[in-house]
Amino acid sequence: MTEPAPSFSKINWLYEMYYGFRPNQPKFLPKDYPDLTGKTAIVTGSNTGIGAFVVELLYEKNCNVISVVRNEKKGLAAKEKALKKVPKSDGSIMVVGGCDFLDLNNVKPAAQKIKDILQSRPLNIIIHNAGLMSPVNIGTSAQGYEAMFSTNVMGPQLLQHFLDPLFLKKDDPLKRIVWVSSCGHLLGFKEYGINWENPTFKDVPISERPRNMTLYGQTKAANLLQSHAWAIKNKKAVDEVGAVSVAVFPGNLSTDLTRDWKLLGWVLPYILAGGLYGAYSELYGALSPDLTVKDQGAYVVPYGEVHKPREDIQAAFVNGSDVKLYNIVEDLISKYF
User: Fewer Cβ atoms within 10 Å of its own Cβ: the N or the C terminal residue of the chain?
Assistant: First the structure.
């Protein structure tokens, strides 16, 4: 059992929700990014939306980018688009297709492809950008897990399991992991955002599932917990290599994340910023010198500031509920190691 979760402030809840729609303007911009010659970054879900902009901005700074996507054809098309937009770079873009987190059997082969591409080069940045925000609560993975939990939580942690031996090496001073979260974590369950009895809702009739945004909120709370728990579980190696693991809320934006939301997806381009601004948020987490090893689990909000998450999430970092969730997920994904 977890420790009883503290209550959270409705005023802070409302403020953080409001801030997601009216954030401050970005201050850490491409002109401030370091030269990334010789560095390698992995970006998941990078054939469209925020991920595609992240790839372009990293490549513009001479980074070697590994774009991890579900559909290889779409990934290659996004690569060609990036090469045209950024004609001069000393970096590279490689595409790894077939990594669909709705079937966890896909993750190990994708990780092997990444390993083959890396060879002996340092792995500097990992951005777990791929995500699913479904307008309905009926989605189910190939393994019978609730779709958003499989895509947003289990898949990234499984991929990270395979990347850890490649990442946790003292071969370069730049070591960053970004777990993409959201102000949606505020909508998660009352106990640290998680439905502890069965977070995957496996074997639960769809008619008994909570509404879609509660399920989404659970996954975004989980990403916050993962960002801190990963650093705790790997503390010795993390301290040795100087790795920093943070959670980033890119912003409430008009991107392909809402492509299945019909009317909402049509309206958002007129009222919200586009995916480029989300890339600014994620790259603050990946590159800003403001973040150090003292900031494990920091909650980066748009477009490059650090706020505090919901009060019970903060408590989880202290009482070990974050590590408990990480261990629960690790047990579930261990059959795919």
Answer: N
Q: Residues with catalytic annotation? A: 181, 216, 220
Question: CA angle at residue 201 from 196 to 206, to 5 degrees?
Answer: 140
Percent of the chain past pLDDT 70, that is, above it, reads 94
Q: Is a pLDDT exceeding 80 seen at residue 245?
A: yes
CATH at residue 269? 3.40.50.720
193 assigned to some structural domain: yes
| Residue 57 domain flag | yes
Name the DSSP letter for residue 48. S
127 touches 279 (CB < 8 A) = no
Do residues 121 and 167 make contact, with C-beta atoms less than 8 angstroms apart? no
Task: Calculate the alpha carbon distances from 261 to 87, 154, 201, 206, 225 in Å.
Answer: 35, 24, 23, 19, 27
Is the pLDDT at 265 greater than 90, yes or no? no
Element (H, E) at 318: helix 311-319
Q: Which tens digits make up the pLDDT trace of 29-54? A: 999 999 999 999 999 999 999 999 99
1 within a domain of the structure (yes/no): no
| Average pLDDT estimate for 281-292 | 98
Distances (CA, A) of 274 to 15, 27, 67, 101, 105: 22, 17, 20, 25, 33
- Domain assignment present for 2: no
User: Residue 240: what pLDDT?
Assistant: 97
Is the pTM higher than 0.90? The answer reads yes
Closest CA to 201 of 147, 131, 126, 262: 147
Token pair of 213 as six digits: 């945004």
Q: How many domains does the chain have?
A: 1
Helix, strand, or coil (residue 44): strand
Domain residues for the domain of 246 are 10-336
**Sheet with 299-301, side-by-side order of all strands:** 92-96, 64-68, 40-44, 125-128, 176-180, 244-248, 299-301, 305-307
Task: Quick: pLDDT tens for 75-90.
Answer: 999 999 999 999 999 9
Residue 329 has a pLDDT of: 98
Render the burial of 47-61: b for 16+ CB within 10 Å, e for the rest. Answer: bbbbbbbbbbbbbbb
